Amino acid sequence: MNDTQIKDFFKANRPQTSDEGTFLAGLSARMDAAAEIKRLHDEAIRRYRLTALITLIAGIVIGGLVIALILLHPVSAPQLRTELFARILAFAAEWKYVGFLLIASAAIILGLKPLSDSVNR
Q1: CB-based contacts of 9: which residues, under 8 Å, 6+ apart?
Q2: N or C: which end of the chain has fewer CB within 10 A?
Q3: Which residues of 10-27 are buried (b: 16+ CB within 10 A; e: fewer)?
């Protein structure tokens, strides 16, 4: 369709309105409502951005204070006993297959769940 065909279509198919005054009043009310929604949306976006900025500044300040306190008051970490560390490593080596089995089972179950959900629909 070219522009003349579109113009002809709209000229031929004019919608009938009961009263010109009520139509314009309703249109004006809808436009005012849309403007109010846009204003509320813009205000919410402004609040979200301000909240994010305040959170960022607070995080940087608190992080800086924590780092300053750590550097000013160092605490020596207790030395790990090699015997305890060796036992933990031996336990992990002995039971690692069970851990891998649990992880693999969870991965298989999570992989099959969407498939079963789509079949049950």
Answers
A1: 1
A2: C
A3: eeeeeeeeeeeeeeeeee
Tokens of 14: 């004019």
Q: What would the two tokens of residue 24 be? A: 């314009």
Residue with tokens 């009043």: 25
Cβ contact 35:28 at 8 Å: no
Q: Give per-residue burial for 45-80: e unless 16+ CB within 10 Å, then b.
A: eeeeeeeeeeeeeeeeeeeeeeeeeeeeeeeeeeee
pLDDT of residue 17: 63
Kindly list the domain boundaries of the chain, sorted by start residue: 16-75, 78-121
Chain segment 46-102, per-residue pLDDT in tens: 998 989 899 999 989 999 999 998 888 876 656 656 788 888 888 888 888 888 899
Going from the C-alpha of 23 to that of each of 12, 17, 37, 120, the distances in angstroms are 20, 7, 21, 50
